[in-house]
Amino acid sequence: MDQTLFIKRKKGDILVVQIYVDDIIFGSTNKDLCKAFEKLMKDKFQVSSLGELTFFLGLQVKQKKDRIFISQDKYVAKILRKFGLTNRKSTSTPIDIEKPLLKDPDVKRIFRYLKGKPHLGLWYPKDLPLDLVAYSDSDYAGASLDRKSTTRGCQFFGCRLISWQCKKETVVATSSIEAEYVAATSCCA
């Protein structure tokens, strides 16, 4: 797997660079680091700068003096239109915890929930440390039929959840520590 997130720390400041196919976004706690990185990229490659980030890969980005807000209201509206859910009643909770999960009805319920919460997103206060932290866990041999473990993991950036996963592993671990190593590898790969 290619590395796509790069972090440079310099004298208490941080430069974060994210690459996706042929798109690059970057930001820093220090404007001079941003300017130096932009100059380096322009000197080495034929690139154009679009200025302050407002939209990237379906994410809307609103930058304030003390924080950044990331949301997907345009994407949610697009999905609601695509699946004919714009005129459906919204719901106050994303899932019904009293019933077992069902693939299609539960996805529709989640979008009905998002319809009623169009401005949900993540706030990133600019004064928080921008550390990347990951956690993983495994239920060693939890599947009774094939003894495969279920792995769970989550990743945080700057104290904010950015990714999570839960999956049945493709290999059978021979010990609980091996199951935890497999979980850590899945979580951090």
Automatic annotation (TrEMBL):
Organism encoding this protein: Tanacetum cinerariifolium
Top-rank taxon: Eukaryota
Occurrences of domain Reverse transcriptase Ty1/copia-type (ranges): 4-95
UniProt lineage: Eukaryota, Viridiplantae, Streptophyta, Embryophyta, Tracheophyta
Pfam short name (any one): RVT_2
SUPFAM superfamilies assigned to the protein according to its UniProt record, in alphabetical order: DNA/RNA polymerases (SSF56672)
Membrane-spanning ranges: none
Protein known as: Copia protein
